[in-house]
Design brief:
Layout: H1 3-21, H2 25-37, E1 42-48, E2 54-60, H3 67-74, H4 76-84, H5 99-106, H6 114-119, E3 124-126, H7 133-142, H8 150-153, E4 159-161, H9 174-187, H10 190-206
Parallel strand pairs: 3-4
Antiparallel strand pairs: 1-2
Length: about 210
């Protein structure tokens, strides 16, 4: 059995198991989001997937309704802060996040809907970060030494969790993150996938 076949089986088993295990969340969380800040409860965001193909990534909405517009057109100071931080800043520094959204993010609950991206074959449980195209383009210009890593990163499916998510997340600069993602993509080791999966719960709880 090839690595890709092993990984697809792992993805289907883990994603399906988690969807069933957290069944109450699919009822309670959407209701709480709706009561807190209205509809829609799912945030759909375009990301770059395998082979550079765009796909729609799902999340429970943790921000105000016009979050993207506020960042790119309404709050230039916040946009500069994002760029200085390699497009990652702490949730406490982002005024667009709702009070409920801060709770969801603190336990990574907002990312649960990505399990359906996994079932659809757009993502894997373990893989490089699902980058926003504009972010990837700007960061590779800011850090030209990372351009050699991009083809490797885009040669595999992005993951819900991965090497950078279990090794420091926001504290890791883009250049190091890209290097880690590329090294993971080249390795293709199911034992590495299982190790990252094992480390993920502790990494999630460390955010709180």
């Amino acid at each position: 059995m090839t690595y890709e076949q092993q990984k697809r089986i792992l993805d289907l088993v883990v994603a399906t198991s988690l969807i069933i295990a957290f069944l109450p969340f699919w009822l309670i969380i959407p209701l709480l989001i709706f009561l807190d800040s209205g509809w829609p409860v799912i945030f759909v965001h375009k990301r770059v997937g395998k082979n550079g193909k765009d796909f729609e990534l799902y999340k429970f909405r943790s921000m105000v309704l016009n979050a993207d517009e506020l960042l790119h057109n309404g709050n230039h100071r916040l946009l500069r802060k994002f760029k200085r931080g390699d497009w990652k800043i702490a949730a406490k520094d982002d005024p667009r996040i709702t009070p409920l959204g801060r709770f969801l993010r603190s336990f990574t609950i907002d990312e649960f809907p990505q399990l359906f991206n996994v079932l659809k074959g757009q993502m894997s449980m373990i893989g490089p970060r699902a980058y926003v195209r504009k972010e990837l383009e700007e960061q590779s210009k800011k850090y030209p030494e990372t351009k050699k890593y991009i083809p490797h990163i885009l040669s595999v499916k992005p993951g819900i969790t991965g090497p950078w998510q279990t090794s420091g997340r926001n504290e890791i600069p883009f250049a190091k993150r890209a290097e880690m993602d590329a090294a993971y993509a080249k390795k293709k080791d199911i034992r590495e996938d299982l190790l990252i999966l094992w480390r993920t719960p502790a990494a999630m709880l460390s955010k709180w």
